[in-house]
UniProtKB/TrEMBL annotation:
Residues 27-370 form the Beta-lactamase-related domain. Coiled coil: none annotated. The lineage of its organism: Bacteria, Bacillati, Actinomycetota, Actinomycetes, Mycobacteriales. It comes from the Bacteria. This is Beta-lactamase family protein. PANTHER family: BETA-LACTAMASE-RELATED, BETA-LACTAMASE-RELATED DOMAIN-CONTAINING PROTEIN.
Length: 395
């Protein structure tokens, strides 16, 4: 069964994946739980495409609802750059400055694309990068500021998660080597070949009716965002999180409609679960889906290689970064080691497990479940764990 064989208004539940569907539907029983969508492919065939809950307090989640998915977009942006690398437009071990000369300022002349894609460029700081929060929406100004910024010295001892800046860096390289805008590249490299349009970093005005606004307000502590950020920026152990993700006013910016006017692939991607599962479905299936080759198998072999096993000085863990992705973290003792994907703040995420041929994607407007915070959310790891277990039995 191909995606085209089922009307987009009709849900898909392969009987083998009923356990996953049951868990998903239990997550969205009340308006307080918001809504979401879940989609999965197994060896190139759709096995789940379901949705539930509320897009707003008075509108149910529908087959075409989309949601802001934060860092989930990093995997999408990375896939675009890998497509360009296959055509020889960029090489992973070349300096970034070979394609973006201004980037070589302030001691960054030797930093490579490989290092940048594994969060070792030392440009994680978004706090203080721009004069005000709205300035973060000016991608040209952000690129100019990043090019002029000195790298953090901690990059020499380990990665530091570029929570917001990663997407701007990747997008600038892609635009420099092609002469096209990043939305044009996403359309050309992903949306067009995959036959789905919901890969948006700048949401078209005529599609914004489909958006499910995220909630609740974003703040890891009871105090204001500004006060919390100031305190965290001074505390060892969490200082990096404040530097990388807590720019002044960023909590309001991520809830503002103006966020959808900009191109910031590190955090402002808007997707459907169906589109994400389809992209990762190609990667999980040896790089192809429905006769379309997204990436070559030797590219996938390179992408799967762990680039650094060192502790990330922003996150405080060892993410084992791949080239633009992390592994699919799931609620299982035996993790899917041959997996690549990216999770987003508040719960959304997607990954491909090349061992089982499985891809799975989850989007939601509810930042964190009722029992967790907006930062540490276990919904997708549990859904992913169930799905990986089933795929292993099906293999």
């Amino acid at each position: 069964m191909t995606a085209d064989a089922v009307p987009p208004t009709q849900m898909i539940v392969d009987p083998r994946f009923l356990q996953v569907a049951d868990r998903f539907f239990r997550m969205f029983r009340t308006r307080q739980q918001g809504g979401g969508a879940l989609a999965a492919y197994l060896y190139g065939e759709p096995v789940l495409d379901i949705w539930a809950g509320w897009a707003t307090r008075d509108r149910r989640w529908a087959h075409d609802t989309v949601a802001l998915s934060f860092s989930t977009g990093k995997g999408v942006a990375s896939t675009v750059l890998h497509r360009l690398a296959e055509r020889g437009l960029v090489k992973y071990d070349d300096p970034v400055a070979a394609y973006w000369p201004e980037f070589g300022a302030a001691g960054k002349e030797a930093i490579t694309i490989r290092e940048l894609m594994s969060h070792r460029a030392g440009l994680h700081r978004v706090r203080g990068l721009m004069p005000g929060p709205l300035d973060l929406l000016d991608s040209d100004a952000v690129a100019k500021a990043l090019a002029a910024a000195p790298p953090d010295r901690r990059r020499l001892s380990g990665p530091g998660y570029h929570a917001v800046t990663y997407g701007n860096l990747v997008a600038e390289i892609a635009c420099r080597v092609t002469g096209r805008t990043f939305p044009e590249l996403v359309e050309q490299e992903l949306a067009g070949p995959l036959g789905l349009r919901e890969f948006w970093f700048r949401v078209p005005q005529n599609e914004r009716r489909r958006l499910a606004p995220v909630f609740p307000r974003v703040n890891p502590l009871p105090s204001s965002w500004s006060a919390t950020a100031r305190v965290m920026s001074r505390l060892p152990g969490v200082r990096g999180i404040a530097e990388a993700g807590m720019a002044e006013g960023f909590d309001e910016l991520m809830r503002s409609p103006s966020a959808h006017d900009a191109v910031m692939p590190g955090w402002n991607g808007v997707f459907s679960a169906r589109a994400l599962a389809r992209m990762y479905g190609a990667l999980a299936n040896g790089g192809t889906l429905d006769g379309v080759r997204l990436l070559k198998e030797d590219t996938l072999d390179q992408v799967l290689e762990v680039q650094t096993r060192r502790r990330d000085y922003v996150l405080g863990i060892r993410p084992n970064w791949r080239l633009g992705y992390h592994p699919g973290w799931v609620a299982l003792r035996e993790q899917p080691l041959r997996s690549i994907g990216h999770y987003g703040f508040g719960g959304s995420g997607a990954f491909a497990d090349l061992e089982t041929g499985l891809s799975i994607a989850f989007v939601t407007n509810r930042l964190g479940s009722n029992l967790t915070t907006t930062i540490a959310d276990a919904r997708f790891p549990r859904l992913g764990g169930d799905a990986v277990s089933i795929a292993r039995r099906a293999a």
